[in-house]
Design goal:
Order of helices and strands: EHHHEE
Number of helices: 3
Largest sheet: 3 strands, antiparallel
Structural class: alpha+beta
Strand order of the largest sheet: 1-3-2
Strand content: 25-35%
Number of strands: 3
Length: 87
């Protein structure tokens, strides 16, 4: 961003993502992404332990009725190059 043609500061964006407990777990249990590969490659007893730990950790974000409120924060910035370098 230092080389970009913007003097504006990045905007801080804050939002809550809401998802179901089962919905959020289904990605890992279904083999999605790295966590899914890790979970699905474990023995059944280990998957049960992982699920229990997921439930313990996600309880902090419980909204009720099987829903989670997951806080997110990001910086949003944009810019443009002042000139294109020529080869």
């Amino acid at each position: 961003m230092r080389q970009a043609a913007s003097r504006d500061r990045p905007a801080r964006v804050v939002w809550d993502h809401r998802a179901g407990v089962e919905e959020w777990w289904s990605g890992a249990a279904g083999g999605v992404a790295t966590i899914g590969l890790v979970v699905t490659s474990q023995a059944t007893q280990t998957v049960v332990r992982v699920r229990r730990e997921y439930e313990r950790l996600s309880a902090e974000f419980a909204e009720g009725e099987g829903r989670l409120v997951l806080p997110h924060r990001a910086l949003l910035a944009s810019g443009r190059r002042l000139s294109c370098p020529r080869p």
